[in-house]
UniProtKB/TrEMBL annotation:
CDD domains: NTD_TDP-43 (cd19609), RRM1_TDP43 (cd12321), RRM2_TDP43 (cd12322). It comes from Parnassius apollo (Apollo butterfly). Transmembrane segments: none annotated. This is TAR DNA-binding protein 43. Residues 89-167, 174-245 form the RRM domain. GO terms for molecular function: double-stranded DNA binding; RNA binding. Residues 276-307 are annotated as: Disordered. PANTHER family: RNA-BINDING (RRM/RBD/RNP MOTIFS) FAMILY PROTEIN, TAR DNA-BINDING PROTEIN 43. It is found in: Mitochondrion; Nucleus.
Length: 307
């Protein structure tokens, strides 16, 4: 079959270009995209309706009557629909002073963005404040800004959280655990480095030094995108992981400290790796206290790891 030229335009009303066919009568898609970047096929109008041409192995086949019977224009992939914007939640404000009313709460939080709702909960009998209230922003970005910090309202520190969430909902996903830190890495070093990825709202470096830190971002997506990565900061290789209060126990190289669950606040230890004993193989013990020359019998209480 001899080579023929096909009239193809970008849009139905645009000026066409003649494109050559192959010897078998098909038109290579690469020939089309060389002239019309992003095109995914061809279509034509027949009897007032649009028809698409068959595409097999990057070859566009002619219609039943042949190429000369119609004029063709490009088909392009439809743009993917934008992901829906996150919706704002009702936020609970904890620790409000008894004297603080709706006007004071609205005045304070309006600096973060437009407010749709402000409510201070009061006792039905006395009318006195219960020390907490609710707010709702119009924009999700304003909600993120409010969740990313503590708030001084009428001389008292207050916390903003998503209701029914022990850790403040999105707040837990905005914090990352930075392991393998050295004493040379300061909070300013971490803030400057991670600030290149997104706005940093808080950096926590334990004192005394414990070889890890916590970094909190304004945007939870930034925090989650860094998890599982190694980063070099001032010549120090650190590892980023999710910041959770406790984890399933892992290898001994990952152990940072264990506290006894004895009904009181857990104690956190920072023992060097060589002080850790082998895992107990009986009684379900998670770990034993480090060996010392005069150590007592191993404690049989369960342990909780804190990172």
């Amino acid at each position: 079959m001899s080579i023929e030229y096909v009239l193809v335009s970008e849009g139905e009303q645009d000026e066409p270009i003649e494109l050559p066919t192959e010897e078998d009568g098909s038109l290579l898609l690469s020939t089309v995209t060389a002239q019309f970047a992003g095109a995914s096929g061809l279509k034509y109008r027949a009897g007032g309706r649009l028809r698409g041409l068959r595409l097999v192995e990057d070859r566009v086949s002619p219609p039943p009557g042949g190429w000369a019977t119609h004029r063709y224009f490009c088909a392009f992939p439809r743009a993917s629909a934008p992901s829906p914007r996150p919706r704002c939640s009702d936020l609970i404000v904890l620790g409000l002073p008894w004297k603080t009313g709706e006007d004071a709460v609205r005045e304070y939080f309006s600096s973060f963005g437009e407010l749709l709702m402000v409510q201070v909960k009061r006792d039905a009998k006395t009318g006195l404040s219960k020390g907490f209230g609710f707010i709702k922003f119009a924009e999700y970005e304003a909600q993120l800004r409010a969740l990313g910090r503590r708030h001084m309202i009428d001389g008292r520190w207050c916390d903003v959280r998503i209701p029914n969430s022990k850790d403040g909902g999105a707040a837990a996903h905005r914090k990352v655990f930075v392991g393998r830190c050295t004493e040379n890495l300061t909070a300013d070093d971490l803030r400057e480095y991670f600030g290149a990825f997104g706005q940093v709202t808080d950096v926590f470096v334990p004192r005394p030094f414990r070889a890890f830190s916590f970094v909190t971002f304004l945007d939870p997506e930034v925090a989650q995108s860094l998890c599982g990565q190694d980063h070099i900061i001032k010549g120090v290789s650190v590892n980023i992981s999710t910041a959770s209060p406790k984890r399933e126990r892992g290898s001994r190289s990952q152990l940072l400290g264990w506290g006894l669950l004895d009904g009181a606040a857990p104690r956190v230890y920072s023992w060097p790796p060589e002080a850790w004993p082998a895992h107990s193989q009986h009684s379900g013990h998670a770990a034993l206290a480090p060996h010392t020359p005069h150590s007592a019998a191993p404690d049989t209480k369960p342990y909780l790891k804190y990172e």
